[in-house]
Amino acid sequence: DSWAARGCGGQRFFCKPEGAWMKLSLHIGTPRTGTTSCQQWFAANRDVLREQGVIYPVSLGEINHRAITSYSLNTNRMTGAFKRPNVETAEEHEVFRAQLRDSFAVEIQQYSQAHHWAISTEHLYSRIKTFEMIGRVKEFFLRPILRKFLSIYTCARRWIYCFPTRPKMPG
């Protein structure tokens, strides 16, 4: 059940060899724009969405995926609602990050047939302020993909090296 990365119209998607597409939508709605209502709707309709191949994960938060914000913050910026139990030091923050990555990876594996993942937290907009923090968001979502697709990437690089002219991509 392998996946490969493809570009389409400037967007990054992940497709299975048989052609089923998977897409990640990261909603970072600005404050006071109805984001909470959207999140409540996604959470209330999680089962119906899952039947349609759309996953609104629970590993990042039951309603608001605030955990990805806590993951991405610098340890000294984890205050208020972003404070996590047993996270006081940088080392404890790394343990939290590893646990969140693992629980998200389990959910990805559990719903490997899904074609769309929806993530929503307005706190990425309001709390993530540095390139370092943005890099953590990017790394979080790319890590499981990279782990799963490293062998495909290696094969593709060899193929491109051996055949320097690109074939026309279908579609």
Can I get a quick summary?
By secondary structure, the protein is α/β, with parallel strands linked by helices. The protein has six helices and five strands, in the order βββααβααβαα. A five-stranded mixed sheet has the order 1-2-3-5-4.
Labels describing this entry:
171 residues; alpha/beta; five-stranded mixed sheet; 6 helices; 5 strands; disordered N terminus
**DSSP strand content:** 5-15%
Instruction: Give the CA-CA distance, first to last residue.
Output: 22 Å
- Count of DSSP H/I helices: 6
Radius of gyration, taken over Cα atoms and rounded to an integer in Å: 18 Å
Shape: globular
Q: What is the share of helical residues?
A: 40-55%
Whole-number average pLDDT?
76
Judged by helices, strands and strand pairing, the structural class is alpha/beta
Layout of helices and strands:
Blueprint: E1 4-8, E2 11-15, E3 21-27, H1 35-44, H2 46-51, E4 54-55, H3 67-72, H4 90-110, E5 116-120, H5 123-127, H6 131-162
Parallel strand pairs: 3-5, 4-5
Antiparallel strand pairs: 1-2, 2-3
Structure notes:
The chain has six helices and five strands. The model is unreliable at 1-19 and 148-167 (pLDDT under 50). It has 171 residues and is α/β, with parallel strands linked by helices.
